[in-house]
Design a protein that fits this description.
By secondary structure, this protein is an all-alpha fold. The protein is built from 13 helices and no strands.
Length: 261
């Protein structure tokens, strides 16, 4: 929503002259309407930043950059602007600009967990997983952070990517302790322990996903592989049937006849 321009309302007032009839009450002139106050610049900047975030989520990076350009002119001290700039430039593979903006956002607001998380994920996806984990840890230390399970899950994924499976498992379990229905954490935990041949634990870990209305294809495939290795042919067939019915064209469905790794 763009702020409305300030408008001065002119009132045309007809004033009764001296020739009014005797005994006529004098006309009461209403007070002028006060001018509407313009929305303060910091508030307008925040609106532009939020619009930019929405365009980023929809993949419209060019429009997001336009909104951010308007926002930064209005309030160059708003950390959210640089956070979204970082996300947009990262998506555009303009890593130098992304890093500059993430660092600027953290200079302004070092305790913002959302910015810490985004910076951590940027580092992890750029081959700097060891650095990223510390950023996720800082994000979840903030008791006001509204989605710590996201940072914990991503910390687990980054730890797993560098072979720190025990650390990754701890992060996944912490994420599930916060949000038991977290599908991403449950899947990654199940996959991790499956690869370590801890099949009963893998079956238990994947159970929350199977309680969802539409389990994703990769989870159904993993469930099938777990049951295949456990020797439960009926459960294996059930997962395979769900894959064929729900995701007939998926890569996981095409891989059903093959061996599970």
């Amino acid at each position: 929503m763009r702020p409305l321009a300030c408008m001065t309302v002119l009132l045309a007032v007809l004033v009764a002259g001296c020739a009014s009839k005797p005994g006529t009450a004098p006309q009461v002139v209403p007070p002028p309407t006060p001018q509407a106050q313009e929305t303060p610049a910091p508030q307008r900047a925040q609106i532009h930043a939020e619009l930019a975030a929405g365009y980023y989520e929809r993949g419209q990076m060019d429009v997001a950059l336009q909104e951010l350009g308007e926002a930064v002119k209005l309030d160059p001290s708003n950390a959210k602007i640089y956070n979204v700039y970082g996300l947009v430039y990262a998506m555009l593979s303009q890593d130098r600009d992304a890093e500059v903006n993430f660092r600027r956002a953290l200079e302004i607001s070092p305790n913002d967990s959302e910015i810490r998380h985004n910076w951590g994920w940027y580092l992890c996806t750029r081959g700097r997983a060891r650095e990223s984990i510390g950023e996720f840890d800082l994000a979840v230390r903030n008791p006001l952070y509204r989605s710590p399970e996201v940072a914990l899950t991503n910390a687990g994924k980054c730890a797993a990517s560098i072979g720190e499976s025990k650390r990754a498992e701890d992060y996944y379990r912490r994420a599930l302790a916060v949000a038991p229905a977290n599908v991403v954490a449950a899947y990654n935990l199940s996959l991790l322990v499956y690869k370590e041949a801890r099949l009963d634990e893998a079956r238990l870990a994947i159970r929350p996903i199977m309680q969802q209305n539409s389990p994703p294809a990769e989870a159904l495939y993993l469930g099938m592989c777990i049951e295949r290795k456990l020797g439960d042919r009926q459960a294996e067939a059930s997962y395979a049937s769900q894959l064929r019915n729900r995701y007939p064209g998926a890569a996981e469905t095409k891989a059903i006849p093959g061996a599970c790794e």
